[in-house]
Every structure is written in C-alpha cells, then in structure tokens.
Amino acid sequence: MIIPTIRRPDPGVISAYRALQAAHDSVTCALSDCMGRFGAMSVELRPLSAPVRFAGSAVTVKTLASDLAAPFKAIDIAEPGDVIVIDAHTSASTAFWGENMTISAMNRGVVAAVIDGACRDVTEIRHLGFPVVCRGIVPNVAAVTGYGEVNVTVQCGGVSVSPGDLLVADENGVVVVPLERCEAVLAQAQQLLATERLLQDKLRAGATIGQLVDVDAVFANTFAYQVRATGQD
After folding, report:
1. Are 47 and 132 in contact (CB under 8 A)?
2. What DSSP letter does each residue of 158-195 carry, written as one string?
3. Residue 65: which pLDDT band, with cuts at 50, 70 and 90?
4. DSSP per residue over 194-232, as a string?
5. With 60 as the cut, is the pLDDT of residue 201 above it?
6. Of residues 132, 134, 85, 76, the one with CA closest to residue 105
7. pLDDT value, residue 203
8. Phi-psi bin for 164: left (phi > 0), alpha (psi -120 to 50), beta?
9. How much is the average pLDDT of 8-32?
10. Cβ-Cβ contacts under 8 Å for 14 (sequence gap 6 or more)
11. What is the pLDDT of residues 3-19, one digit of tens each?
C-alpha cells in the first residue's frame, strides 16, 4: 500500500517546536514529560553524527525483507520539512539507507531519516551533514524488488509512528508526538520549560531539588519511609 497524501501538523506548529529547540537544549525531555513520560524511541537508535537536532512530520515506511522500493518511494512523495521513518524490523544485517538516498532526500527538502534498522555510507552521510538516526551500520545493502508500504502506521524504536506524526530529536534521543496532540503538547511543553527555568534559578541560588519538590512529603506516603522515619524495624 502506497499512500501519497497525508495530513501534517500546521506549519506554524512545527515552527513553534523548532523555536523551542532554538531556545532550550533538552526539548525532547520536556515533550516526554508532557506525554506521561512516554513517546521516546529506544536508546538502541543512535545518530550517526552528533549533535542531532530536528523537528518534522513523519513519512512512514514499512519494509518487507531486504527491499528498498518503499524507502525510495517515500523520498519521492516527501515534502520539505518531512522526516523519513523506516520500520525495517530491527534488521542489523542489511542497510536501508545510504549516500544516494541521502542526496535524494536532501533534494526533496527532507530534514532527517530515522531507521529501525541499519544504514551504510557513514562517512559520506556525515560529510553531507544530513541527520540519520539508526540501529546500526553495515555495508550490505537491500535490493529494489517492489515490496513494502508507505504512509501506514509503523513501529520504530519501540514507538508507534503514524503518517504526519511529529518527530522531534536532540542529543537525548527521538520523541514522537502524535499528530492529533501536537498543539496541546506544544502548549504544555512551553509552560513546562518556562517553569523549569524558574526552578533552576532557585537551584542556582542554593536550593536542592528535594526541597523544591518536597520529596519528604512524597516519601511520607510510603509505608517503608514511615517505618524508617520512626525508627521501627
């Protein structure tokens, strides 16, 4: 199944996420916090080059065996600002991304590729300055035989990704913000990051994090802490 047209977040919303990244270092952490401490891809997916920082809407790919046809098609139908997300089923023996695909993606205005699988041509991709997050590196490359799907819901790094979802990445990892929640999560993250700056001002003035969150009150709700605090066995 190839779906050429998808819904994407409003361009103003994507710009607002990028503005957050310009103003704050660890936006992915705030986004995960705002989504119940979920949404982050597995630590096993790592960038080819650091630092990595991008935000864009997902064009998704589900591969079948070692076939590059679907990733090729995804690049062709991508729009400027998109992120190619490839569900290669955690394959570490075959590359699903390389130098030529990178150049092709850059021609389309794609801002990054995230691959639950391997890639190759690492030196060339680094020289191009194109962000790639993947599971591993291997010289073997997939064939082009005409299988796979584009713009269907996939799994990438242990997270479900649907077409048009927003991917946000920085040095902490990649977070997926569902399309329908993009505006709400943005507002929550803006507020959270503003609050954290006030908290950090107090920390720099000499407070401890335990004092600011009243950790004693949190512990007081647990039986084990009550026993320790009273000196009982």
Report:
1. yes
2. TEEE-TTPEEEEETTEEEEE-GGGHHHHHHHHHHHHHH
3. confident
4. HHHHHHHHHHHTT--HHHHTTHHHHHTTSHHHHHHHHT-
5. yes
6. 76
7. 82
8. left
9. 96
10. 8, 55, 56, 57, 81, 166
11. 999 999 999 999 999 99
pLDDT of residue 123: 97
The secondary structure element, H or E, covering residue 114 is strand 112-119
Number of residues assigned to the chain: 233
Band (pLDDT 50/70/90 cuts) for residue 227 is: very low
- Check the CA dihedral 51-177-196-37 and report its sign: negative
Place of tokens 């990649």: 174
- When computed from its CA atoms, the radius of gyration of the chain, rounded to whole angstroms, is 21
Q: How far apart are CA 190 and CA 18, in angstroms?
A: 12
Query: What's the average model confidence in pLDDT over 61-74?
Result: 93
For the chain, counts of helices (H) and of strands (E): 9, 11
- Vertex 200 angle, CA 195 and 203, to 5°: 135
Q: Residue 56 has which token pair?
A: 């864009």
d(CA 198, CA 220): 26
The amino acid that residue 131 corresponds to is P
Question: Residue holding tokens 């992915």?
Answer: 28
Number of other residues whose CB lies within 10 A of the CB of residue 39: 23
Token digits of residue 15: 């710009």
For residue 99, count CB atoms less than 10 angstroms from its CB and return exposed for 0-12, middle for 13-18, buried for 19 or more: middle
Q: Tell the CATH topology of 11-188.
A: Glucose Oxidase; domain 1 (3.50.30)
